[in-house]
């Protein structure tokens, strides 16, 4: 593994390659993603995004003249497999950094592997626990679940809501976001009057929603969760004719959620999302517009499918990593880690990233956009 991307070829390397020129190794980047399984709607666009970006980068000459070798595994959303693949990436494949952790569960098993090996890891999952407390080698690109709660409660407060119901998934993400929302909801003068739960495999949330519907004074409902659960909640909500605003989390910010829930059922649902979903609605002066438009055009041309927030998370993780390696002038994991932590003003699909030793996310609430589903598409809430 080379120590410096900018160093000249050593005599030994020249001799080994017949004095034919430089013989530096590719920069190995690892990934373990949930490209199949229950979180495939998240992991599949992430995997396709990384493959596309590596291909494009190498066609343009790589990083500081060196090609990138992507070593990617599909953990199927299984935390045990994610840990196994992360171990393989650092021990056998000798990667200089890892991108992945499609879900909170898989991210949390990758973190100790990355920390022990002292290899930087950029997670693509939402839970705040990934970067709070701050760990030296763990970073992430999605907004935290706590930030999503804050964005939603800000919007609820502007609409005068003071009493809400909540129905949350019991998976890692849903459980974490529920706790974060309950911890800060009082700061917005809002009371959670009904608090229901559902399991990752549940196929009908009618009983829980019936309980919420029967609770006096409910003005809106929030569903912290990701995967198929929120789509089922949305369909059941529509079937029960609950005439109250429904909020979802940023964990379902994709066209796939609308398709799964159904156009009629999803109508009017609000959630915090990224600029990527409403690129065509952004003003020309918005700094994210060029980045969003370029990624959207390239991804949709390459895959024939719409972009999603989740592919955008992978886009930003790769951009952060490439930027860090360029600035470090090295593929040494410690040097890359240090450079990632000094990321400043990097414009991505999710927001403008500025990290620090105290902040391994680098985003604030201004990067979130409040979205509403209308006629099967996304609109911006002013």
TrEMBL record:
SUPFAM superfamilies: Periplasmic binding protein-like I. Residues 1-25 form the signal peptide. InterPro entries: BCAA_transport, Leu-bd, Leu_Ile_Val-bd, Peripla_BP_I. One of its GO terms (biological process) is amino acid transport. The keyword Transport applies. The keyword Chaperone does not apply. Residues 27-362 form the Leucine-binding protein domain. Gene3D superfamilies: 3.40.50.2300. Transmembrane segments: none annotated. Keywords: Amino-acid transport, Signal, Transport. Belongs to the leucine-binding protein family. This is Amino acid/amide ABC transporter substrate-binding protein, HAAT family. It comes from Consotaella salsifontis.
């Amino acid at each position: 593994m080379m120590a410096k991307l900018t160093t000249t070829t050593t005599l030994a390397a020249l001799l080994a390659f017949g004095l034919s020129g430089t013989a530096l190794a590719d920069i190995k980047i690892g990934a373990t993603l949930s490209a199949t399984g229950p979180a495939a709607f998240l992991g599949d666009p992430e995997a396709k995004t990384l493959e596309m970006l590596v291909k494009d980068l190498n066609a343009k000459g790589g990083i500081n003249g060196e090609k990138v070798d992507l070593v990617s595994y599909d953990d199927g959303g299984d935390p045990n497999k994610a840990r196994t693949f992360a171990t393989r990436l650092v021990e056998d494949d000798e990667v200089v950094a890892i991108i992945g952790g499609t879900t909170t569960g898989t991210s949390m098993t990758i973190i100790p592997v990355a920390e022990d090996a002292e290899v930087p890891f950029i997670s693509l999952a939402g839970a705040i626990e990934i970067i709070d407390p701050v760990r030296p080698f763990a970073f992430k690109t999605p907004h935290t679940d706590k930030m999503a709660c804050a964005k939603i409660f800000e919007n609820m407060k502007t609409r005068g809501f003071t009493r809400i119901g909540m129905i949350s998934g019991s998976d890692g993400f849903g459980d974490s976001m529920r706790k974060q929302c309950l911890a800060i909801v009082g700061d917005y003068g809002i009371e959670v009057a009904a608090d229901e739960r559902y399991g990752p495999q549940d196929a009908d949330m009618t009983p829980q929603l019936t309980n919420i519907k029967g609770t006096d004074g409910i003005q809106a409902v929030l569903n912290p969760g990701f995967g198929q659960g929120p789509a089922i909640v949305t369909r059941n909500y529509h079937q029960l004719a609950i005439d109250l605003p429904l909020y979802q989390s940023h964990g379902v910010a994709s066209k796939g959620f609308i398709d799964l829930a159904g156009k009629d059922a999803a109508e009017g649902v609000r959630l915090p999302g990224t600029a990527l979903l409403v690129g065509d609605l952004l003003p020309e002066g918005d700094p994210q517009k060029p980045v969003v438009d370029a990624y959207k055009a390239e991804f949709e041309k390459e895959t024939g499918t719409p972009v999603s927030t989740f592919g955008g998370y992978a886009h930003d993780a790769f951009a952060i990593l490439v930027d860090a390696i360029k600035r470090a002038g090295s593929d040494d994991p410690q040097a890359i880690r240090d450079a990632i932590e000094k990321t400043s003003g990097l414009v991505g699909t999710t927001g403008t990233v500025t990290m620090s030793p105290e902040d391994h996310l680098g985003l604030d609430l201004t990067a979130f956009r409040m979205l509403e589903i209308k006629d099967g598409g996304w609109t911006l809430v002013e």
